[in-house]
Amino acid sequence: ETSDCCLLFGYVLLAITLIVCHGLAALVRFQRSRRLLGVCYIVVKVSLLVVVEIGVFPLICGWWLDICSLEMFDASLKDRELSFESAPGTTMFLHWLVGMVYVFYFASFILLLREVLRPGVLWFLRNLNDPDFNPVQEMIHLPIYRHLRRFILSVVVFGSIVLLMLWLPIRIIKHIFPSFLPYNVMLYSDAPVSELSLELLLLQVVLPALLEQGHTRQWLKGLVRAWTVTAGYLLDLHSYLLGDQEDNENNANQQANNNNNQQARNNAIPVVGEGLHAAHQAILQQGGPVGFQPYHRPMKFPLRIVLLILFMCVTLLLASLVCLTLPVFTGRWLMSFWTGSAKIHELYTAACGLYVCWLSIRAITVLLAWMPQGRRVILLKEWKKRGMDKIMKTLIVAVLLAGVIPLLLGLLFELVIVAPLRVPLDQTPLFYPWQDWALGVLHAKIIAAITLMGPQWWLKTVIEQVYANGIRNIDLHFIIRKLAAPVIAVLLLSLCIPYVIAVGIVPLLGVTMEMQNLVQRRIYPFLLMVVVLMGILFFQIRQFKRLYEHIKNDKYLVGQRLVNYERKAGKLSTTTHSSSVQE
Questions:
Q1: Confidence (pTM)
Q2: Which residues of 442-474 are buried (b: 16+ CB within 10 A; e: fewer)?
Q3: Structural domain spans, the chain
């Protein structure tokens, strides 16, 4: 915090110094020095604004989010002060990262609103998709006081939204459901591998499934459009929010007529100045409306706008209440079947509940899409002919590819890497299938990504074919025969062969119990090292063979014919050739 303040103070002091020097240079008419100082002032000004907008503003948002959510985690300002004193750099970075994520998703939501609302409704917000918008040029031309006013306004708006969607819902939840909060957030755990595996599983599997799907964005856009239509008809602001459809159709017809008239005038002789005016109009009309669309202004318009803002605040409050309670409650209820009364990090319960809610909404949308075909078609034709067969195939493939293979892979990783590093020889390692499966999912995803980026071989070909087929054209026989069976066989051999050697063969040699324990605990990493060394050796041998062939071909290959460099073989070939000529 002290370094950030010193940095800002240094930028401000440097800017003030440059302004004073620029004024003195203007008084004594030093044109070159004045231009140089002007350039330096612009550079310092842009640097200062970049630091404020990218560094200071997200940091303020992050700290304000943390302060408003203290009651949700049963924390206090004293805890945050101790955390900052113990690790100031990490604390500042985490708050800046949280604030940056908040600003990013807020900007993404604004872009989504621009796709729904009438052009011109959000006139007070900058359009990031505007091709004429240049942030660097805006930083240079606008004065400092306007940037300062915009910064204060942004802080007020973002801070008010945090109060509305975080602090106030937390107070309401604590009043209605006293036992629901605080969230169980364990910063320290006795099982770091479990926590790490679940966090990586959340970041690599659950969140990509929620964020990378186009359905989620379409659902959110549909909800925004439905809310806008409802608010527009309730408050008679449909024309202001969405525009007039009839006017849009008339404008489209008028635009078509104008195009026809313009094509008819192309052969006419233009009047002086008409060509320049037409060019300017073409530039202005290129790409549709330029930031504004006319609308119908109803009576008592300011009062209706105030009611619209109040309706929006109530909607955001209710949406925040649902998002803070429903996923966590669903996740806690589902996790209780596996863990019982044990407390779990709320990050995992929220992710589980959110994923279940997403799957439920997806199933409802699919059923609604099938509704126009009739209930009989849904229950009989789709379910019996296609649905059951496809569901059974998908379940079998999911059990094999998302259940068995990750479990075996995670168990192998536990035996090869984790257990030798974490468990001493005088202790017995404990294996948890849930943790091994979670780590196996991550390793399977990483291996699949590396395989797809690597050279062409049988596993890459099979994975690409499975991806190309998808769920609709799923081929169960191909997946089992080409992908699941070979991979499971390799993993089972990797698990069973070292175990048979350590438990079945080594005791027959008459070694001590300590040696048997050492072999059982170290045979997996030892065999991995042997396999890696053998792979490197075979790879180097293959590369040397290729190098030898390349050198031999460069030296002796003429076109596509190899020159015979052995003397005896050369005489024999010459004699054979001459005898064939004589015959």
A1: 0.60
A2: bbbbeeeeebeeeeeeebbebbeebeeeeeeeb
A3: 1-181, 381-556
